[in-house]
Design a protein that fits this description.
The structure holds three protein chains of three kinds. By secondary structure, chain A is mainly alpha-helical. Helices cover about 80% and strands about 0% of the residues of chain A. Chain A has ten helices and no strands. In chain A, helix 2 crosses helix 6. By secondary structure, chain B is an alpha/beta fold. Chain B has two domains: about 130 residues, Periplasmic binding protein-like II (D-Maltodextrin-Binding Protein, domain 2, 3-Layer(aba) Sandwich), CATH 3.40.190; about 100 residues, Periplasmic binding protein-like II (D-Maltodextrin-Binding Protein, domain 2, 3-Layer(aba) Sandwich), CATH 3.40.190. In chain B, the strands form three sheets. Chain B has a five-stranded mixed beta sheet with strand order 5-1-6-13-7. In chain B, helix 2 packs across helix 9. By secondary structure, chain C is an all-alpha fold. Chain C contains eight helices and no strands. The longest helix of chain C has about 35 residues. The chains are: A mainly alpha, B alpha/beta, C mainly alpha. Chains in contact: A-B, A-C, B-C. Chains A and C meet through helix 2, helix 3, helix 8 and helix 10 of A and helix 2, helix 3, helix 6, helix 7 and helix 8 of C.
Amino acid sequence: MEFDFALIVESVPKMATGIGITLQLLVLATIIGTALAVCTVLMRISKIPLLSWPAMVYIYIFRGTPMLVQIFLIYYGLSQFQAVRDSFFWIALRDPFWCAIIAFSVNVGAYTAEILRGGIQGVDEGQLRAATALGLSKSQRFIHITTPIAIRLALPAFGNETVSLLKSTALASTITMFDITGVARTIMAQTFAPYEIFISAAIVYLFIAWFIQIGVALAERRFSRHMQR
Amino acid sequence: MTKFMNVVVSSIVLSFMMASLASAETLRVGMECTYHPFNYRDSSGKLQGYDVDVAKEVAVRIGAELTFVCQKWDGMIPALLANKFDIVVASMSITNKRKKKIDFSYPYRVSIGQFIGPKSKNLKLFNADGSLNLKGFNGVRIGIERATTYANWIEAKVPDADIAFYDSNEAMYLDLKAGRVDAIMTNPMKAFLRFLSKPDGAGYEVVGPQLAEEEYFGIGVGIGMRKGNDALMARLDKALKSMTKDGSLERFAKKIFPFTIHPLD
Amino acid sequence: MYVVVGWLDEFLWGALVVLQIFMVGMTMAVIWGLLGAAAKLSKIPVFSVLASVYTTVFRAVPELLVLLIFYFGSAITLTAIAKLINPDIQFVDIPPFWAGSFAISLIIGAYAAETFRGAFQGVDPGQIKAARSLGMSATHTFFYVRLPQMWRLALPGFGNHMLSMMKDTALISVIGVEEILYTAEIATSITMQPFTMYMVVAIIYLVFTTVIMAIIQVLEKTANRHLESV
């Protein structure tokens, strides 16, 4: 079994061209997805069925189906319809980048909404009662008490979700995008060396995941600085 | 617990031994299984197509059994080298680049490429005399399947082209119809059969001449196998040559196309 | 829409394959998870370091890449190992079904190891001490005290792992296993109706995940029944 270590090492910089796309997908989808998640969770915890029901259905569908299927549905599925191709949305849907962003953001939105909901529900009741006793209104309680505590509670899960998104960006290679995995598959097709090329790609992902974990750990430290000795 | 483990371990060992013994003469054939009309599954699950017919006939002639293994195109050669199957009968062109890694049989089909594009775009990728017009590629997005001869051709001839790589032939056609790519470069036989002659392809045409440069397309399409299997190769070649002579290849081609598609020499 | 009817039995077969991958993968994932958790909690540094490497790598590398590496690498590695035992063997390979199930089980196993570890650590030490002082052997304590309590704590996380496993089965189509997504791709290539076909796949997965979520709810109720008030 020949194992071309040299090929692994010299392939890592070639993957660099893919890192740009991967990071763009990661950052944009996280931002849009989180914004979507905030709206969704507010709808979800609302007492009005007209708001909470659509949110529940949205979360249920996008957490219950595989990401790969969602991507294929948005990219290939929607393009099947002439009506879609003639519409205004086609400007975005035509481009695989935006199809990927839409698919990833909607997915992040659903998962993060559940994480945020867990965080909100985890806020100690005692804190909220104290706030009421002090005369804070409902919205004041939510903004100044619930939100910071919920964020702190949700951070570890959110960190996991971000790493999860990083892994999902690899699926963009199935819709012609040149992210890290897309570049790896193209190089593999030219050199016929799958083992070495994919291992270099894996190393690149490990590094990015490591950075994400460091970022989340820093954020956790900042949000719990009132609890440290 | 130990007795259970014994059974598990011995059955694993046994199946490995069986694997090495069972290759009495069963050839595992790698193909894409989604490449209409050369190798694909129809709605009843049966494998059909020119490549399938050729493979089955060759097996009869050399006295072997076949098992078919489906594999995505861009991993076809790596999978062959990784021992996932023994031969590749998947419309794989015999190119110098590939010959460095694997051996090929006598060709059983010609290997050509051509561009397909919408009539409305009036693409001028080639000049009137058939030569390449590099300027015509500016602003044009080309769809190509990964790891194909078409990819090699375009990377060599038009290195600055805006290319979108696809994992499958059909995904590429879907995007051509959707307008995500302005042109595709692919096999003209299939394009004619499945697309241009159908209502779906009404607004599309071939752009430029058929390309058959040996450097990129090779001398044709052949059966691929790992290096060092000269005995098997000799038997396959003999079978293919006799199939060419006695008209079997012609028969298989005429099932699908109004023309023959194997090299006539 | 009626074009789906011709492909229904293909999809049903594919759904069966998905279930098989899920069962096989989940079983292996539980094993890796327990082994990983045990290794991480172990006092022997070699084990805990290896386990850390395992969980870090398999939780950070994209599933798609892991699948591709295992698919192409399985034959090479297994043949090399087999050649050590019997030099006459030409090749040893495992079909993509097993390579794929094994790969996803390793991924979910890494997550499960973390969940199980947290759950084991969450078991009240007082319970263990009480069990030992009552004369229960270490093995007895493990199976009758630690495991059931750990299971209750691990259940929510484990439920999520089951859902992830179910959804990861979709990726196996990339290495040629003929399950529902692969069937959809073939059907699309013939019918040219990607939306319809992929919708069928989505609906089938939604059914599976709903069933899993129902099972998790039942399991959670059962595991917590001793805590319910009369």
